[in-house]
Amino acid sequence: MEPAEAEFLAEKELVTIVPSFSMDRVHLIGGDLGPFNPGLPVEVPVWLAISLKQRQKCRLIPPEWMDVGKLEEIRDQERKEDTFTPMPSPYYMELTKLLLNYASDNIPKADEIRTLVKDTWDTRMAKLRLSADSFVRQQEAHAKLDNLTLMEINTIGTFLTQALDHMYKLRANLQPAASNDSQDF
Amino acid sequence: MRYGHTEGHTDVCFDDSGSCIVTCGSDGDVRIWENLDDDDPKSINVGEKAYSCALKNGRLITAVSNNTVQIHTFPEGAPDGILTRFTMNANHVVFNSDGTKIAAGSSDFMVKVVEVADSSKQKTFRGHDAPVLSLSFDPMDIYLASASCDGSVRVWKVEEQTCVTNWLLLQKCNDVINAKSICRLAWQPGSGKLLAVPVDKVVKLYRRETWDNQVDLSDTSITQHSVTELKYSDKMKHEKNYSICGLAWHPKYEQIAYTDTEGNLGLWEDIGDGKKPNDKVASTVTKGYEDLFDGDDDDYLNGDMIEPQSSPNAGANEDHGDDDDLMPTSGHPTRAIIDDDDNSLDIGMIKANSNLLEKEEDDVDDLTGGFPALPTSSTQQPFYDGPRPTPRQKPFQSGSTPVHLMHRFMVWNSVGIIRCYNDEQDNAIDIEFHDTSIHHATHLPNSLNHTMADLSTEAILLACESTEELTSKLHCIHFSSWDANKEWTVDMPKDEDIEAICLGQGWAACATSALLVRVFTVGGVQKEIFCLPGPVVSMAGHGEQLIIIYHRGTGFGGDQCLGVQLMELGKKKKQVLHGDPLSLTKKSYLVWVGFSAEGTPCYVDSEGIVRMLNRGLGNTWIPVCNTREHCKGKSDHYWVVGIHENPQQLRCIPCKGARFPPTLPRPAVAVLSFTLPYCQVATEKGQMELVLEEHIMKLLELTQDEYYSYSSSVTVECFQFAVGQRLGKNHPFVLELPMQEQYWRSVVFHNYVDYLSKNGYELDENAQSQPVKEQQELLMKLFALSCKLERESRCVELADLMTQNVVNLAIKYASRSRRLNLAQRLSEMAVEKASELATALGDEEEEEDFRTHLNAGACVGCTQIFTYLFFLSYCIAVIASSSQGRVNPFKVSATKKDPVVPSANVLDTMSKYSKKLSSSRAVNKESPPVIKPLIPKPKSKQLLQASAASFFQVRTPSSSEKRVGEREEKAGNEPSGVQASAQDSTENKRPKTGFQMWLEENRANILTDNPGLNEAEVIKEGMSRFRLLSSEERIVWSEKAKGGTVNDVTEDKKRKRPTAAEDEVKKDEEQKSEDSNLSKKKKPLDQSTNVRLSSFAFKQS
After folding, report:
1. Which of A38, A59, A108 is opposite residue B435, by nearest beta carbon?
2. Which of B36, B70, B168, B815 has the fewest CB atoms within 10 Å distance of its CB?
């Protein structure tokens, strides 16, 4: 899966916005949205929030976890533990990127948040690589990783599975070759 | 308290007349304040730092950091020369009583006395071994007292420049800033007979000439003495250096101005019972002090005054005991300390201080050190011990945060937000609209220092108070105007300050300090002007309506005494509320007043109660919400920004630990729901719903999807119903009361429709009919419930609230559920209603339209309601039967035959039932195994009464004697008989088995057939006869036995039968009752099932 696809899925997450326009409930396939009252917070999917924000039709209220204190805690926890810790949102990376790109003026300390999320992400990616490494090294048949988000799985998933395939093929070829060796003599 | 100077040492004094306060501070400025609220004090720069100032006869003496003591003219502030110089800065300067001399004490250990007129005439006093802290001139001009960091207090004879006496009293230190106390000394004003020296926590009084310590004013006993006015302040140290360093008495009033090392200036008023200089003064003391402690500054009045932590009580006493309520005897009544961390603040004070509160509350705890002030007085004032008047709350704009904040909301309403920034870089106003289609956001410079603002969809209104040069101004930006000139400004007459402003549709209004309300058009034409009965508190406009809240009088004991005027400024121009008293929660004040989006006046008090005008009940106020109930913490509040009636929403901003929100980070609006304070069973709503959900699903054997797909309005009722069972609340109110509240809430929040349509507004038909439909539905549900509860009179009362069509429905329902009596009454009522309606229609054609609208709306709901009702009754039946099965397996056998046992897909059958009314009726009928015709019921009741009456007649002493005799006889014959009869008599009270009941019934027959049988034989005979009965009959009897209470009367009657049997006259009647038994054989069964049904439904019996 492409990162863009993961991002697309993340856009279905709900965020709170304060609209600056008035509109009745809109009926969409995915469910009803609104009603939109100026000044009154309302939950909408990220895609709509961004679209409205770009047209300056709303003010975004960042999700609760998008807060420097909370993210610091999460980052520290992530660094402290060897396994993956649960993330505040299954789309934390995508949401951070989307919201900070389009609505950074509504998010206090946007830069700090960006750094913190990136730190957390890096820590997790390092863990992921490390575990993939030990997985390959020890030639395990299967492994289980908890609390991975979709985006993280996708960064390593395609590569790892293909790599394992290749390795399997190589190994499979190696053994007959070894037995052939003796016959060459 | 307010900001006065930058941080550091400050000093304060009053001018001779007391008309202004003069302060100096470490910023080197002397400021002249008209009063505490003076936002633009006159500043005179006197040097780099000013240490002390004194003012007399138009001369202002300051001790400044270039080691000089300077003179300035007052109030002009022109420099008038240097009086004297030291090698270090002077710490304290004082005038003598006639203002001819000054004394200055310096950090170079010297004290100088200089004649003001001729600075060459100086006297120097040497003797202190450390910087001089403070000085005090003897009023008789003979002596001078000085205190120094070396710990000594010396008294000098001015003429001879000699030290008269010297006490080592104070703690030594090396510099003024390290001194624990700045030890302000004071002579008794007038005669100077006593010198007061504050030492630690006591004040030592020394007698003149003898210089002996006359008395110590200690914490606990302040004796009455002849000092009329004594002042001193004590420098306190605590971690934050938040301590009082300057203190001055007002020359006339009971006021103390003080400054602290943070540079703040404060004013205590109503220290005593003197004349009140301004209206925020509480006239009495105790209250006054509370005010001080609560409001004025939580920090050091609460903290410092009481602060000697070793003896807090004492500290408080000392303060209280200052001047006004001193009793001539020693020994003070101990007062409660006001140790107040909850914010029971006085509004005026809060407004001034709330930004400091949080900080201050922290401070209170770490305060240490002495106590600051002990003004004492012997003026014998009458001791008033009644209720204390409350300081009047100051005028405010709804939806604004306190004026003194640097960043504040000037208004936040449903249109937009106006913020005001007032810091070093910028003094500006930011206007932002919720709906950007109304107008774009605007940024205005705030050069006039506007403090009030209002915002509507057509204009922005701003107002400022008057300054020395400028009059108070009203400024309007009419952005929706079609011409190019959108702004106008109006100047108020001189000495008239705008106190509150508001905008309506097409008009603007302001209330001024001259008790006038001025109305303008939104384009700036002056319109009406009228007087207010009292100082305005707040006002608000909406459409043509204007609501004004003002002080009707002085409130007592913490209450405000407010009045409200509501008027319509449109074409009608009438007053709706004529200055009626405004009801507020006890000890609260008004925090918000305005209109709902639909135009109903509402207000909020400081206890968080939201009240709304109920136009449906003679313009009374009804509490519609308690925002404090929604708060998590004790100090949390909701800051109301708007009220909407359709949909019912209370928009407010949650404030954690504060009354109002900060401008940054930008607060988010929350929506609260309304709850009328009707009596309700207090159940956690969420918890209840969860329990219900689970329960209803189990009961109706629904899957989650099915359940959710089902109409919520129906399931909610079932929920409530089921929870009543589940939670064991055998109270029908579990279900009934919330519905009642819902009904009345709907009614109250629907009043606006009535009002608006009366005022010629076009309303969406749907918006009109929807609530009516909802109300009628609720009524019908309530009706159905009351029917089930067998409260027929309540049914009638409910039907009285219904519209014509729904009454017809109710009649149908009543007759279908076999309540003919009720149906009869209802139909009578319906006829009455119809005739009333007819006359009403004939009378008023205007109303006709509206009514028919309503009826039309109600009609739409009719069919829905009907299906609902049958569903409800079905549910009840199902719930009853299944819960029966659960609770009492014993009874299941009786009802097992019911075909009602729900099939797997209940909803299918249900919808069928609701479509086919007849079949749903069948469901109801099917539940009892025996169907009884309707008519016999009243008849048998009559019979019961008749026989009961005969029973009472029969119950004469003779018969009971007879019985006793009979028993004695039996007792003599055989003990087993006695046993049997004893057993019999207990069983008579409540027959337990079918046989016993049958026996009771048939004993007479047995006895007549076989006279002379004893009890045991009767039973034996009965046994054999009972066996002969068919099994069905036997079941009937056993059913009857279980029937319980219903049969009590009949039992009694039956018990009497043996005696009655002997009476020939009664025989006929017996025959009759025998007949009635036939019907009864069926009846109790039917009745009992009914009873059971309802009892299981509501656990009533």
Report:
1. A38
2. B168
